[in-house]
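Now for a chain:

_____
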Amino acid sequence: MSLFARILIAAALWLAAVVGTGSAAVAQPQRTERIEAELAAMSAWAAPGSTAVIAVKQTIQPGWHTYWRNPGDSGGPTALTWTTPPGVEAGEIVWPLPERQRLSGLMNYGYSGEVYLPVPVAIPATARAGTSLPLTVKALFFVCSDEMCVPDELTLSLDLPVREGAAPPDPRHGAAIERVLETAPRPAGIEARIVMENGALVLSAAGGPLAGGDPGPAYFFPFEGGVIDHAAAQTGGWGPQGLTLRLAPGGTTRSDGLTGPVAGVLATAHGAFEIRAEQGAALAGTSGSGDLAAAPDAGAAADGAAAEGGGLAVFAQAMLFAVLGGLILNLMPCVFPILAMKAAALAASAHDTRHARRDGLAFLAGVLTTFLLLAGALLTLRAAGEAVGWGFQLQSPPVMAGLALLMLAVALNLSGVFHVGAGLQGAGSGPLARLPGGAGAFLTGMLAVVVAAPCTAPFMAFALGAALVMPWPMALMVFLGLGLGLALPYVAVSLTPGLLARLPKPGPWMERLKGLLAFPLYATALWLAWVFGRQTGADPLGLLFGAGVLMALGLWLTGQGQSERMAGRRGVLHLAAAVLVLLLAVGTMVMAARMPAQAGGATETGRAGPASAPWSPAAVEAALAEGRPVLVNFTADWCVTCKINERTALTSPRVAAAMEQSGAVYLVGDWTRRDDAITAELQRHGRSGVPLYLVYSPGSAGPRILPQLLTEGVVVEALTTTRD
């Protein structure tokens, strides 16, 4: 037999052995539009009592990336949940050195292209040769581009053969996994110290592979987020024993110093090494020989200008979507009551071009000021680690109580019970009784934003989600763009004399219109009080109703005093009584808001829609494990759009029939009061507020996100698709 024939026979026998064991080649990849993943073994089989290396292989689409154990300024690390046979134990991920991914003022740590995440898996000595061990992992990837982030969850499986003896490398993945293990950061006998000096963190490292020469470009990746400013430049020098890096402290580092050791990965031209820096002065021999070269951003855009251009493109898109979202917000149910005030203001100044222009600009100023205040509070709370989103102020019972009484007061003003800043004149010639001029328009703009807060219009989801991960100046600009869109129709009309001229001239009809337009605001006050009751319970709601009656009485007395003064009398008695009653109203409102929420409050009782259960990740997993689809409704009682969707699309007979036929489980995430778990879930799906509707299908990689404005056809189609 020739040598060539012998080689062919040997190769065939080895290949048959590998294939016959059911090696990693039979593992089926799972994929989404952004990522493909599979389980891959480093060796063709595992021996009893050994440690196998199983890697989660990611093939990431161009323009997208996943994250390291510390994701940096945004995103989240890949999370693995293993299901293994008894005695088989999966260890922690051996993380490869990440890329630095810069976007505008942010710095993230992650991966792009093809990535292997190796995991050591202990095989028990009792494992029988000739069998296979079924391994399953539920992998949650945060897959992000420059514009958005999507949590993709994939369930991966692999039958790992068990055989005696040393195994050859897996022919498909073995060599690649070995390279990852060889180059992955690991301890290397390096001593490290860190200290706060003049507002900077000074990290020194010496010994091991760092001694003896220029380490080349160096960069420190901390294991914990917030220790350093990830986006700031890292500078320093090197010496005969090692190197020193100067780092900008992060948000969790106290100004007076560190609270403990800092661990992470030190990447140099000679390799990447795990270090643990204890607190202390810089080590000797770590500086003086030269300056460290700047480490380039790996995995960023082709050059710095391109990266900045990408960031500016995202900012420009977010601004455009913010303006469009603000425009559409005018058509959302939340804003209908405020349209009454806009209509009244337009009618009052329609034939006075100068006043109309002033009112339009004052209305815009009120809208932008309020958006700026809300955005500043939201960004400040999030920077402090609070889990809040759009509409966060409406999760506070004191805010809801105050808004309910404010809307009642505005409605009583429109009904003529009292007047602010305007005298009583003839209905045929006098102006509409309202706040004087620009002040009234400014207040109307502020109220428009307050009332609009429960709504999230189309296009707003991307704009708000992008704003919350941008540097704060850009984020504030996006919120101002939202305000500009909300105010734009009113401002455009007020600055267009031709349109104003088409409105009827002032006359008695304005008084009738004013009285009619008060009723949407009465309804708004009742709705806010109802939400307050859902948040707190019946007893606080009763006190709030009492505060409302006292406020109505106080404002009526105010109106009587104004009438007395216009009749030439002083009206002091009426006005003094009004002040006293209004103080009692405010005190009663404070008592109502400070009462503890009653257990088993209204937010836990029946809600419009099919029979439901509270949302939780465990409830979703349990339903999917039974092979049942899941419809999740993230809602809040103060979200008018949510209520309309629930009363129409989610309660229709067709939806009920589709849910029954598909065996779907209906879960409700109630965000009426603050819930950090729901806030985090909204953020995972790129949303900063409700409504959010998800449909999960057994065996699918992730949920389907339904539109914010539902129709029964959309819901039925989604449930029917899951069944198919």
User: Anything to note?
Assistant: The first helix runs from residue 3 to 20. Confidence is low (pLDDT under 50) at residues 3-25, 298-310, 422-434, 600-608.
